Amino acid sequence: MPLCRDLTQRRGGRFTELLHHCVEHEGEEMPRFSVALSATPAQAFLSIVETNQFKNLTHLKLEMRCGARPRAPARPLGEKTLGED
User: Would the pTM count as exceeding 0.70?
Assistant: First the structure.
């Protein structure tokens, strides 16, 4: 089964399940799950990490980038050019 279908078919989805774990462990000295957002002017990363005594396991890392600004149309919409009927 493709991963994206598996994520949406589970009750609440895996993403929300991971966020729920982060909320459950919020405020602990050594939380088992944590969520982090790091950003620069050009991009941002959202990571959900599980920590145990041996390693940090990244369950999810989303990279977000700024989109390009839409360009203005070359001519106003509905305006005809020469030769168009």
Answer: no
pLDDT of 3 reads 45
Residue 54 sits in which domain range?
Answer: 3-65
Domain count, the chain: 1
Cα dihedral 10, 12, 13, 19, rounded to 10, equals -140
> For 6-20, how does the pLDDT look when each residue is reduced to its tens digit (9 = 90+)?
444 555 588 888 888
Residue 73 within any structural domain of the chain: no
Q: Is there a domain that residue 84 lies in?
A: no
For residues 48 and 58, the answer to whether their CB atoms sit within 8 Å is yes
In angstroms, the Cα distances linking 68 to 33, 38, 53, 77 are: 34, 21, 43, 21
